[in-house]
Amino acid sequence: AQRVTQPEKLLSVFKGAPVELKCNYSYSGSPELFWYVQYSRQRLQLLLRHISRESIKGFTADLNKGETSFHLKKPFAQEEDSAMYYCALSAMRAGNMLTFGGGTRLMVKP
Amino acid sequence: ETGVTQSPTHLIKTRGQQVTLRCSSQSGHNTVSWYQQALGQGPQFIFQYYREEENGRGNFPPRFSGLQFPNYSSELNVNALELDDSALYLCASSLAGQGNSPLHFGNGTRLTVT
Description:
The complex is a heterodimer.
Chain A lengths: L2 E3 L4 E5 L4 E3 L2 E3 L4 E8 L6 E5 L10 E2 L10 E3 L8 E9 L7 E2 L3 E6 L1
Parallel strand pairs in A: 2-11
Antiparallel strand pairs in A: 1-4, 3-8, 5-6, 5-9, 7-8, 9-10, 9-11
Chain B lengths: L4 E3 L2 E4 L5 E6 L6 E7 L6 E7 L2 E5 L6 E5 L5 E5 L8 E8 L9 E2 L3 E5 L1
Parallel strand pairs in B: 2-11
Antiparallel strand pairs in B: 1-3, 3-8, 4-5, 4-9, 5-6, 7-8, 9-10, 9-11
């Protein structure tokens, strides 16, 4: 069975501070990991995926298979980063049948 | 580019009733997935449709069923509604044949069962 855990429901930081949103997963096969984001009054949208190995809006995430983690990081938080963040997992090439974590609300204070 | 649209936006039903939710996929997309999001939780995968057939299902009972039409739009039907079915129902479209292509979500339908 697949499971995604985001241990923090709420993360509050000041503008300019580093941010790390934690994500741990359990899956026996080869996973594909994603971060989705939902800004206020907007729909859920893809932020980044581990196979792309890219930085989006200053965010990066590295898949650590040993620790079964996919933490999302940004060195300097901006107020516009305030949003709901969801980590999600899919079996490789499983056609986007995602298992989501419970989400972490990030609040960046001025 | 037309995004994913869902209707209605809000719906109130009584326990035991049946409901149909509708979704139009983003232009160029051929796969539709449905997710249930209870308050304070992450989305939970219900099922996915490709070429008008269900090609994957989450841990939901048979009273949750769906359809996909030749134009790739989709319906989610829920029979014998229960109070716990109250949730935000999200539709997402994607393009099959490109690995796990990104999901494009609609704004959801908020279902309240009383």
